[in-house]
Amino acid sequence: MIFKELIKKSIILTFIVFFFSCYSKVINEKERHLNRKWMLVEMDSIPSEILIKNNAYIDMTIKKGEASAYLGCNKFSFSYRLKNSNTFSTTNIISTKMFCKETIEIEEIFIKLISKVNSFNTTKAHQLELFINGEKKMRFVAADWD
């Protein structure tokens, strides 16, 4: 009887360890894929031409869980966290405080959106999409992609 209980507990423990090790591999794979510089090509109502002209980007190569961004004037920095395979959140958003009349609206929209992003998608080759409650708000293309 004790032997059967021991085997049963061993099987359950093995299953739990296996499940969580596979789960962390999914997140690690997503983190590796995110670890690059992403050029911002779509954001809410801002025309793509302006984003491309301003060389707008997010750089996620800094350090695990940290990113920087640029939209044409100020530099931004924030922390991000992956909670599961597609859940994404940001905290500690800071920026330089230069006044640039031509980019202030773009930067304000970016801060508003990036602080509310709660999921992402990288299923399309070399693309990163950020969502708020299932609605796509930003699309990026990998900077190292031709």
Automatic annotation (TrEMBL):
It holds the Pfam family META. InterPro entries: DUF306_Meta_HslJ, HslJ-like_sf. It comes from Flavobacterium covae. PROSITE patterns: PROKAR_LIPOPROTEIN (PS51257). This is META domain-containing protein. Transmembrane segments: none annotated. Residues 35-140 form the DUF306 domain.
